[in-house]
Every structure is written in C-alpha cells, then in structure tokens.
Design brief:
Distance between the termini: 22 Å
Number of domains: 1
Helix content: 10-25%
Strand content: 25-35%
Mean pLDDT: 97
Low-confidence stretches: none
Largest sheet: 5 strands, mixed, barrel
Order of helices and strands: EHEHEHEHEHEE
Radius of gyration: 15 Å
Oligomer: single chain
CATH class: Alpha Beta
CATH architecture: Alpha-Beta Barrel
C-alpha cells in the first residue's frame, strides 16, 4: 500500500497507477450534489469559493449525524457520476483528487488526464467503518445543506483504490 498525504502534490499524483491501493492522510473536503451546484454557480458568477481547490481532494460524501461519542457519523461514498457535470470546471481550478464510487464519464476521464488529477474509489457500504479513519470534522461551507454541506475532514490512513490515474487510465476499462 502506498501512503499519500492531502493536499496532494503533483509528484504523488504522478506516482499513482490505476489499481494502486493507497492510505490517504491529511485534509479532505466532503461535497455532494447540492454543494457542487453551489460551487459551480460561484465559479460561473466569478465569486470567491468557500474553499480553495488547488491540490485539494473532494470526497463525494454526506456524513450522517455525529453520535455523541464520535468524531463523525457514517461517511461512505456516494455515486460519483452525479458530480460529472461539475467536475471539469473544478479540475480546471486546481482540484487534485476526488473520492467516490462508480464509473466516471469520458469527459471527466479526459479532464482528469488533462489536469493531471486522480480519482479514488472508497469502499461502498462501509460508511461506519470509514468513519474510524476520520480524526476531525467541521462544517466549513453551506451549513444549511445539512449532510450535503462542505465538511473539512482530517483523515489518517483512509483506505482507497486508484480508479483513474493522471494518465487517464481507468480501472473500469
């Protein structure tokens, strides 16, 4: 297993190959459909984004309510293709990585290659288990969206698989 750290460096990204198992540590951000729509609207209108995108990783996840004795509730991946319409614009702004589940469109795969990014798969159906790798969590944007708000997560050895590498090679091909 390769250990990598977010924010991601170009050296780390270029060293990853489709099918690699990785353990990700560092800071990542959750964002699902509604948050992506708001980010896209901000980009379109020239407004400042609530989070920087350069070298960052977005996790397609909407955490459940946090139990009293936990850092976060269940936090499994959601279907990535729902974010495909927004992804090329975010990659153009410097987004380095995405975490989710499922296949991506040809346009997103081409944008990943063009902007030298990476797409990771998280283990679906394991949200409660994945929450154990989250060391801290706090809402940083759009709190009115509840679980679809953007959360800043500090993760330690979060287990992932490289689904699409920076050369555009896909695990689904």
């Amino acid at each position: 297993m390769k250990k990598i750290h977010a924010p991601l460096s170009q050296k780390e990204i270029s060293g990853l190959k489709t099918g690699d198992a990785v353990l990700l540590s560092g800071i990542i951000y959750t964002a699902r459909d509604q948050a992506h729509q708001r980010l896209a609207q901000a980009l379109k209108s020239g407004k400042k984004l609530p989070i920087g995108l350069k070298d960052e990783v977005i996790y397609y996840c909407g955490p459940t309510r946090t139990p009293p004795d936990k850092v976060i509730g269940s936090c499994g991946p959601t279907t990535s293709s729902r974010m495909d319409v927004f992804t090329p614009a975010l990659l153009k702004k410097g987004l380095a990585g995405m975490i989710g589940k499922g296949v991506r469109s040809r346009e997103v795969t081409a944008a990943i290659k063009k902007y030298q990014a990476v797409y990771f798969l998280a283990f679906a159906g394991c949200g409660a288990l994945l929450s154990k790798y989250v060391k801290s969590s706090r809402c940083v944007a759009y709190p009115e969206l509840g679980p679809e708000a953007i959360y800043r997560l500090e993760v330690k050895d979060f287990p992932l698989i490289v689904a699409i590498d920076s050369r555009g090679r896909s695990i689904y091909d």
